């Protein structure tokens, strides 16, 4: 019974607190964040179903595995994007202490991005797609996402122009992040007959969205979160922000080279990819330093801030381990030669994509949606339980995938065993992955429910 | 801020330029191979198979499949798809013969792209010739 009391379904989890003046953009950002969290909940359910499909032979499913996986990957891209859009609007207004250039444009942008995202998932469930990994939807639908990003870029640039002399590093970095999201997606809305160009361009989203554009929005978010919540001084957290952002851009761009080793590019990319991948770790180090400085600044934090920090620190943990260190290890060409194209990549991708970016966007979304409330002790404990389940589930999934990948690399790549024989030996690992996925989904649904209750309680009456 | 913006713009422009230069194909792509690429994309083959090691891990990497199997073997496989283990009843998705032929042209073209020694998989004795 004591365990049941942790569940977010029962009892009071939030109490209202007085909130400061709210800008219209901050109110609009709530719908972005709530949609992102909802799509995240959907994603874990879709992903667990796919994982189970792999371990139970002949499992009947209304959507075939190949399109189910496409929906999972589409969701993995788009919910963090929608959440980031909301976070950038919220924290830029908080940072500049003024309204954005055009709140109606932000509303239009929201409807466009949601409509086109849903169109991607719906068309994929009807087996209509474009068959490019992580960009499986029809190109025209990604054009819709681009329009939404163009509106965001325009709105943010105009906002910065309104405060010409007072542009803060965090505001500038977040805006550039959004512009890069647009520039990197745009070339992916056309058909390439050349398979080398196709592969190369795909990684502008698969790699560069996360390791460059989202890294900029994330750095801006972390800095602003500390400043606006009063947890740290601006000078402390923004000291290295431009340096961090510059290294993220240069390192992110040329570090993409580690995805270009074997796609038909010249051999010089082996050198570029492996050397610049080392540079990519430096901005992560600065980001961690910034987070640490912020953490050290204040001892007394509210439960809402602490829950945000639980999510944020989870993100930082995976940023250092799963994304950076493991990523660096498998970019060594001699290692990559054997591990590339195995489940090792999949394990790394889960840690990097959800571990780093997912947790970060969740922390921002939670912070925004809980504004005007404070978790009760029970609500706080439920939130912590959800974060623990998410972490245990993710580590379980990733460990199983990494173990499967190592075995696959050795038997298939190194010893030259037949693929089918090796594949049958991986079932146990894939089963553990499905179990990890189920724990992860449970944590996800707990967090979603808690956020739903918070969102409902903090809704402002319509004027 | 100006330095950051300038550095970002220049880095991005240079990056795009280098990518364009690096993406040159070893030979022009035949029309049937282009058609085959469309078949590959339409049927979302990438969810289960990899090309150049990128894609799904359920099925085998197909970068060099045309060096291991003959075109007619692959076409037959695709038009009369067998049951995929560990399933007992579920077949591999099937294709119309024209689509299957175009897809094989695409896979043949893919195998001509130099991949710097990847994959390191050992060739099985007797299959190379």
Helix fraction of chain B by DSSP (H/I, runs of at least 4): 40-55%
The ordered string of helix (H) and strand (E) elements of chain A is EHHHHHHHHHHHHHEHHH
Helix content of chain A: over 70%
Low-confidence stretches of chain A: none
SSE-based structural type of chain B: mainly alpha
Approximate strand percentage of chain B: under 5%
Topology, number of strands of chain A: 2
CA radius of gyration of chain A: 21 Å
| Shape field of chain B | elongated
Order of strands, main sheet of chain B, comes to 1-2
Oligomer type: heterodimer
What CATH calls the topology of chain A is Cytochrome C Oxidase, Chain A
SSE order of chain B, as H and E?
HHEEHHH
CATH topology of the domain at 30-110 in chain B: Cytochrome Bc1 Complex, Chain D, domain 2
Descriptors:
heterodimer; A: 463 residues; mainly alpha; Cytochrome C Oxidase, Chain A; two-stranded antiparallel ribbon; 1% strand; B: 129 residues; Cytochrome Bc1 Complex, Chain D, domain 2; 2 strands
Present the secondary structure layout.
The complex is a heterodimer of chains A (463) and B (129).
Chain A: E1 14-16, H1 24-55, H2 65-96, H3 103-125, H4 139-162, H5 169-185, H6 195-206, H7 208-228, H8 234-238, H9 241-255, H10 268-297, H11 303-331, H12 333-339, H13 343-369, E2 373-375, H14 377-414, H15 419-424, H16 427-457
Antiparallel strand pairs in A: 1-2
Helix pairs in contact in A: 1-2, 1-3, 1-13, 1-16, 2-3, 2-5, 2-7, 2-13, 3-4, 4-5, 5-7, 7-9, 7-10, 7-13, 9-10, 10-11, 11-13, 11-14, 13-14, 14-16
Chain B: H1 2-22, H2 31-42, E1 50-51, E2 54-55, H3 65-68, H4 71-79, H5 97-110
Antiparallel strand pairs in B: 1-2
Helix pairs in contact in B: 2-5, 4-5
């Amino acid at each position: 019974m004591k365990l049941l009391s942790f569940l977010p379904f029962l009892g009071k989890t939030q109490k209202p607190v007085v909130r400061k003046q709210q800008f219209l953009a901050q109110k609009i950002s709530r719908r972005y964040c709530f949609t992102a969290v909802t799509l995240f909940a959907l994603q874990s359910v879709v992903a667990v179903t796919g994982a189970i499909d792999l371990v139970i032979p002949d499992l009947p499913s209304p959507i075939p595995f190949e399109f189910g996986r496409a929906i999972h990957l589409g969701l993995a891209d788009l919910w963090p994007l929608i959440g980031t859009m909301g976070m950038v609007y919220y924290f830029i207004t908080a940072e500049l202490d003024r309204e954005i250039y055009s709140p109606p444009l932000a509303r239009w942008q929201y409807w466009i991005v949601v409509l086109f995202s849903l169109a991607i998932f719906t068309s994929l469930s009807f087996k209509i797609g474009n068959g490019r990994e992580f960009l499986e939807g029809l190109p025209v639908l990604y054009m819709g996402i681009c329009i939404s990003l163009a509106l965001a870029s325009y709105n943010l640039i105009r906002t910065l122009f309104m405060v010409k002399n007072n542009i803060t590093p965090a505001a500038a970095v977040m805006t550039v992040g959004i512009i890069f999201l647009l520039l990197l997606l745009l070339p992916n809305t056309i058909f390439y007959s050349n398979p080398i160009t196709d592969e190369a361009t795909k990684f502008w989203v698969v790699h560069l969205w996360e390791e460059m554009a989202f890294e900029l929005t994330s750095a801006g978010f972390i800095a602003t979160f500390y400043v606006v919540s009063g947890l740290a001084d601006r000078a402390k957290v923004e000291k290295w922000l431009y340096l961090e952002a510059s290294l993220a851009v240069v390192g992110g761009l040329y570090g993409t080279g580690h995805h270009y080793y074997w796609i038909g590019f010249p051999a010089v990319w082996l050198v570029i990819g492996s050397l610049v991948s080392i540079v990519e770790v430096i901005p992560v180090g600065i980001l961690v330093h910034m987070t640490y400085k912020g953490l050290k600044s204040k001892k007394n934090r509210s439960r809402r801030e602490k829950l945000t920090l639980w999510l944020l620190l989870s993100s930082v943990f995976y940023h250092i381990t799963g994304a950076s260190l493991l990523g660096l290890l498998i970019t060594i060409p001699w290692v990559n030669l054997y591990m590339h194209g195995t489940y090792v990549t999949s394990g790394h991708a889960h840690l990097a994509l959800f571990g780093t970016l997912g947790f970060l966007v969740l922390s921002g979304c939670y912070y925004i949606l809980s504004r005007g409330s404070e978790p009760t002790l029970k609500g706080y404990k439920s939130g912590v339980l959800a974060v623990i389940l998410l972490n245990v589930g993710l580590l379980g999934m990733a460990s199983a995938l990494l173990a499967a990948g190592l075995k696959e690399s050795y038997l298939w790549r190194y010893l030259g065993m037949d693929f089918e024989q090796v594949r049958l030996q991986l079932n146990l690992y894939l089963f553990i992955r499905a179990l990890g996925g189920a724990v992860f989904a449970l944590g996800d649904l707990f967090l979603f429910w808690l956020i739903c209750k918070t969102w409902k309680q903090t809704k402002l009456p319509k004027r | 801020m100006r330095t950051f913006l300038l550095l970002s713009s220049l880095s991005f422009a240079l990056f795009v330029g280098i990518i364009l230069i690096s993406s040159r194909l070893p030979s022009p792509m035949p029309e049937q191979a282009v058609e085959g690429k469309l078949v590959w994309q339409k049927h979302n083959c990438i969810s289960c198979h990899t090309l150049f090691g990128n894609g799904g891990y359920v099925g085998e990497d197909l970068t060099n499949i045309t060096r291991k199997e003959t075109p007619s073997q692959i076409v037959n496989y695709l038009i009369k798809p067998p049951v995929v283990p560990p399933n007992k009843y579920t077949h591999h998705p099937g294709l119309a013969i024209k689509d299957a032929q175009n897809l094989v042209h695409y896979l043949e073209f893919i195998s001509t792209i130099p991949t710097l020694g990847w994959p390191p998989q050992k060739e099985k004795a007797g299959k190379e010739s």
